[in-house]
Amino acid sequence: MKRLILLFFGLVLSWSGFAQKYNTLAYEPGKKLTWQDFKGRPKPTDIHKGAEITVSIFLNVRETSFWSGRVTYDAYAVAFKDESWVRPAYRDDYSLKHEQLHFDIAHLYAETLEIKLNSLDSKTSKDQAEVEKILKNHLAEMRTFQDRYDRETHGGNNYAKQKKWANKIEKAIRILHAPA
After folding, report:
1. How far is CA 151 from CA 8, 108, 165, in A?
2. Exposure winner among 6, 27, 34, 80, fewest CB in 10 A?
3. What pLDDT sits at residue 93?
4. What are the φ/ψ torsions at residue 55 (nearest 5 degrees)?
5. The predicted structure's pLDDT at residue 163
6. What are the residue ranges spanned by the domains of the chain?
7. How many whole angstroms separate alpha carbon 36 and alpha carbon 38?
């Protein structure tokens, strides 16, 4: 029932100003969502949903090499607080954990996007059109993965599948954050 909407595609060069303007929450490893992070209201078409988090990925130019012109990026998973909501009957730990996994998935995709972009050659790394194309493709892949998560867990209502997904995502995050 609960479904993720990806609201925003974009390459954001001024991360902090944009984040403040749109009341976003940047993903922080180890920090969990709370229901206070869900400030939006459901749309009339969301009648069959109990909660929804709206997430995306923002990019920030970390550095441009003086010598080669090569651009390196930081990628961030963000949640839009004003677009994320919960109905009172669903304001429980189990539903919050389901929504947290959507945010965790966005974080995994942000991290893999950062690795991909920072592996580009010097010429491609500074080609804004190419970087935006890679970002859009990555966001589409993330949306497909998020939809699969909701479909297989029936919006979190299939407890056994929800547990499998939680283990899968937790393992992926551990691998991602393991020392090199």
Report:
1. 22, 19, 12
2. 34
3. 97
4. -130, 160
5. 97
6. 15-177
7. 5
pTM value is 0.87
Going from the first residue of the chain to its last (180 residues), give the mean pLDDT of each consecutive group of 10, the final group possibly shorter.
32 41 87 96 88 95 87 96 95 97 98 95 91 96 97 95 96 86
Bridge partners, 76 (sequence order)? 58
CA distance 134 to 7: 17
Q: Which residue has the tokens 């029936």?
A: 154
Rg (CA), the chain: 17
* Exposure b/e, 137-154, CB count within 10 A at least 16 = b: ebbeebbeebeebbeebe
pLDDT of residue 69: 83
Compute the distance between CA of residue 102 and CA of residue 149 in angstroms, rounded to an integer.
8
60 DSSP β-pair partners: 74
The strand ranges marked E within 14-54 are 24-26, 51-52
* Cα atoms found within 13 Å of the Cα of residue 138, Cβ hemisphere only: 29
pLDDT at site 65: 86
pLDDT score recorded for residue 70: 87
| The pair of three-digit structure tokens given for residue 48, joined into one six-digit string | 């069959």
Residue 116 identity (one-letter amino acid): K
| First-to-final CA distance of the chain | 39
